[in-house]
Amino acid sequence: MNKTQRAGMLLLILPFVALVFVFNYLPLFGWSYAFVDYSPGVPLMEQHFVGFKYFRIIFEGGNDFAIVMRNTLVMSLLGLLTSPLPMIFAIALAEVRGKWLSKWIQTVTAIPHFISWVLVYAIFFTFFSLEDGVVNKLLMDMGLIETGTNILGSDGYAWFFQLMVATWKGTGWGAIIYLAAIAGIDQELYQAADIDGAGRFQKIWYITVPSLMPTYFVLLLLAISGILSNGFEQYYVFQNPLNIDKLEVLDTYIYTLGIARAEYAFSTAIGVFKSIVSIVLLLSANWLSKAIRKQSII
Amino acid sequence: MNKSWREYLFQFANSGTLLIFAFLCVYPFYFIIINSLSHPTESAKGVYFFPREITLSSYEQLMQIPTIFQSIFISVARTVVGTIVTVFCSAFVGYMVTKKELPFRSFIYRLIIITMFFSSGLIPWYMLMKTLYLKNNFLLYVLPGAVSAFFIILVKTYIESLPSTLEESAQIDGAGILTIFFKIILPLSLPIIACIAVFTAVGQWNSWADNFYLVTDSSLNTLQYLLYTNLKSNMADIMRTSASGTMLGADLASTGRVTPMSIRYAITVITVIPVMLIYPFMQKYFVKGIMLGAIKG
């Protein structure tokens, strides 16, 4: 291949590389907004430079940031605590006798993953709303409760409820990776265990679980590096004045500050903080993985 | 005998628990569908297993909402256009990075992959979109996701598993890069293309946030956004917007053949139905994509 042809190839790919640059790297220049007292309409160079003022405000307290961080970390921690669920679900599903049954269960339980959070909210609203919610109606008809429970607007149950919603949406889909891994386990191991007289749970504990550990570990480390990101959509659609104290997470807070309240500099500073922490966590997780398992995750 | 009794119990308990969860995953959809087809007064009494007094009045009312057809059009348009664009861009770039003769190949590849690990944040993104005139612009739905690092990895891995003799013999025959791509690589890569297409299509159909952040022109709103505004508005607003000005709308509303809840059911159904319908057929592509991504990742 000669020089002209190679140059032609580069030319062909250039527009796409440009797209990647524009939508991924160009926005990074926007981090400069965190360092100025932004006034709209004034070009960046003429903005009033304030250095690390907004970063200091983050750590100073006296604003909502601490509460938002608390909410963010609580929800992420709850997610980490329930992270074995897809694996447990996959193991349980693999133990089901009927092939058709387990295939059907796997297909059906993955459905919630494919709908948008707005639709998830629509469904949970249908079932749990105070006035016409199905659950409330049923419970009242059965005489179990007097008046409807307002779980969607509950401050106390907010975290638990969101955890339930996320579990409903993610377990079936999350199990797919583990099911594929289980299918790849050498059957001879199980046969040997049978000969040694191992019971079902022993086989699971000594063969299946160790085989799934690498996958689980990688996903766990990735989840840890994403600890500050809970997802904007889930929390925004479920927010209302009653539960906002518990459900305002970093992603929604950045939006509220930045776009709804036009506090561009502060919001950008928080965004920068979040990105840097995520990168540090990811690199640390990668290093940890290299140290412990001699394998990197990226 | 003792052993098989325990086995039976285990199967019963295990499958039972899993079935309960599966039921919880699928019943909500069934419930909403049958309630959207039932007369609202029956629905208010409680419709759980079969629709009662089957009527299409909720859907008739849905058609009276002024923005409904526009939202459906936008959602369909972004799904179709977005999928075609993303599939083409990701496949082409994925192919190009497998060519060792590409100048700066590893630099370009790394440049693309690293984007999966950082994010610029909302405000810089918002500002950039405004500057690029992508606010209130249909291209907002299509361009940012066009070149996807994850899909590029999938395509690259797949193409590298194809025998290199195919390309070599085509080159000997004098075929250029583009010819090879369109005539040979693309047809052979249909499985991975299908996988990417399905992922992208579902993602486009479900997309709501970009609409929310950056679109104030209501003619560009998607169905998801319409559902969102419907869910969050109060009862009076819903009845008012859905009955706005049309004879049929006002009639349906006043005779109680339609309630805010029934309209909500109807909108939810049409928002979820496309995904529901293609899902059984596309399941294997999703699974395959996950496995490929998992192996590489």
From TrEMBL, chain B:
Residues 72-282 form the ABC transmembrane type-1 domain. The keyword Transcription does not apply. Its main location: membrane. It is a multi-pass membrane protein. Keywords: Cell membrane, Membrane, Transmembrane, Transmembrane helix, Transport. One of its GO terms (cellular component) is plasma membrane. Gene3D superfamilies: MetI-like. It comes from the Bacteria. One of its GO terms (biological process) is transmembrane transport. PANTHER family: ABC TRANSPORTER PERMEASE PROTEIN MG189-RELATED-RELATED, POLYGALACTURONAN_RHAMNOGALACTURONAN TRANSPORT SYSTEM PERMEASE PROTEIN YTCP. This is Carbohydrate ABC transporter membrane protein 2 (CUT1 family). It comes from Cohnella phaseoli.
